[in-house]
Amino acid sequence: xxxxxxxxxxxxxxxxxxxxxxxxxxxxxxxxxxxxxxxxxxxxxxxxxxxxxxxxxxxxxxxxxxxxxxxxxxxxxxxxxxxxxxxxxxxxxxxxxxxxxxxxxxxxxxxxxxxxxxxxxxxxxxxxxxxxxxxxxxxxxxxxxxxxxxxxxxxxxxxxxxxxxxxxxxxxxxxxxxxxxxxxxxxxxxxxxxxxxxxxxxxxxxxxxxxxxxxxxxxxxxxxxxxxxxxxxxxxxxxxxxxxxxxxxxxxxxxxxxxxxxxxxxxxxxxxxxxxxxxxxxxxxxxxxxxxxxxxxxxxxxxxxxxxxxxxxxxxxxxxxxxxxxxxxxxxxxxx
Length: 336
Known about the structure:
Structural class: alpha+beta
Distance between the termini: 62 Å
Order of helices and strands: HHHHHHHHEHHEEHEHEE
Radius of gyration: 33 Å
Number of strands: 6
Shape: elongated
Low-confidence stretches: 328-336
Strand content: 5-15%
Helix content: 55-70%
Number of domains: 2
Strand order of the largest sheet: 2-3-1-4-5-6
Largest sheet: 6 strands, mixed
């Protein structure tokens, strides 16, 4: 929007140059039209440039930014209506009003109440201007009806534009959610989990990572089919969700391997959560092996996950259905 306002300022300046170059000083209606139109555009030059600076500074304030589109739509709708009134000094044309109203309807996303206010304000200012400067009653009526019709059409376009924008954002939200969420379990996908983990590590936050592997999933698939295997994965995910703390991240890294990131958790907290998951999963009829790696802060994600993976495989080799913890120094412990 700042760039668009700068471009508009340059266009206003061009109008100033052209219209004042045409002023003859003969006192005719056409000369008054040239002078008034040039002056109106001249007023808009500093307004557009100042607005570009103001909008650039305001964009980081989401709550205040929501007020910008309707305010500037109302400003330019009023300007278009004034220019339409001034045009009646030279010709009975509604073109300035038509261009302004349709342009705002297409490029500004206005809510219903905002649309009514903007195009209603424009219509009122236009009627006053046309009544003031158009002396021919029949031409006056023609211009006014054309402008009122344009206001109605612009309102309908604005409403359609807003609905389309909302649908696009809703579709985008759904696509992003699907990209971040595993379709089977509802937890984060591998990519989303690793992205979040990297983001947290970049902030210097420590904690613990737990990797979970379902014991004998191949046997479950061979005996009960892939539906049974999927049911086992879903069951373990439900056990995880019911056992983790608020703020913990849960993701499916692939196949039957799940991951939990526990921010600011030490070995004791991580072991408590992991054991709760293991116990709940076992009660549901599925056993799991869990490997935990703790890190104070700053350790790369791949190294952190590798240590958790090593701990998880030690739990597998140690008899499965257990939790094994590896500290940052490589000291291992086992929880039965």
